[in-house]
Amino acid sequence: MTYRSAAGDLALHGIRVLGFPAATRIASRYGLDLQSTVDYLLDFEARGWARQFSFAGTSRWSMTDAGRLEDERRLAAELDQAQARDLVVEVHADFLPLNGRLGRACTDWQIRPTAGDPMAFNDHSDWRWDGGVLAELASLEKAFAPLCGRLTACLGRFEAYSGSFRAALARAQTGQRAWIDAADRDSCHLVWIQFHEDLLATLGLSRGSDT
Description:
It is a single chain. The protein has a two-stranded antiparallel sheet. Helices cover 65% and strands 6% of the residues. It is mainly α and 211 residues long. The longest helix is centred in the middle third of the chain and has 26 residues, at 85-110. The protein has helices spanning 7-18, 23-30, 34-47, 65-82, 85-110, 127-152, 161-173, 178-181, 188-203, and strands at 50-55, 58-63. It folds into 2 domains: 7-77, Arc Repressor Mutant, subunit A (Orthogonal Bundle), CATH 1.10.10; 84-203, no CATH class. Helix 1 crosses helix 3. It starts with 6 loop residues before the first helix and ends in an 8-residue tail after the last helix.
C-alpha cells in the first residue's frame, strides 16, 4: 500500500527538494491547498525551521539546519511506517550509475570539445553531437521510470518525477533546448537533481556523500 505523506510534512519537505521555492510552487508540486501551505510555512518560520525572503513582491523560502533535521526526522518516521527503508536503499544503489550517466550527458550538452579547445562551449550547431545526448537522455528515461515506479508503490511523494522528466525530454526533442538543463523550469536536469535530493533526504545522507 502506498504511504501518503501528511500535508505539513510535504510543505516542509518541499522547501528542501525544490530549493528556495515560493509557497505557490510547493502547493502546486504536492497538490496542497495554498493557504494551508502558507500557514504551515509561517509556522515553520516561527519554529526556526525555515526562513522567508521577500523581493520584487515575491516571497521565497529556505530551510535552516534545524529544519533539515526536522525534515529528516519526519522522513525517517515515514520510512518506518511504510516499511520502505530497504527498498529506498536498493533504489538509491540502482540510481547511482544512472546519476553518473546523467551528469556526463549534461556536460556533453554544455561542452563539445574541439581540436583546439577541449572545453569548448557547445553552440548546438552539430546535430549529431546533440542527437547523441538526446538519445542518452531517452535511454536514461527508460531506466528512470521503473525506479520511480518502485518508490511510488511505497511512498506516494515520488510519483511526479518520472512524468516530469519525460515531459521535459519530450519538449527538448522538439528543439526546445532549455528543457534539458535550464534552472527556471522543470527541465530534465532540475527534475533529476530534485529526485536525487529527495533520496538523500529520505536516507538522511548529505549531498556528495554517495558519489
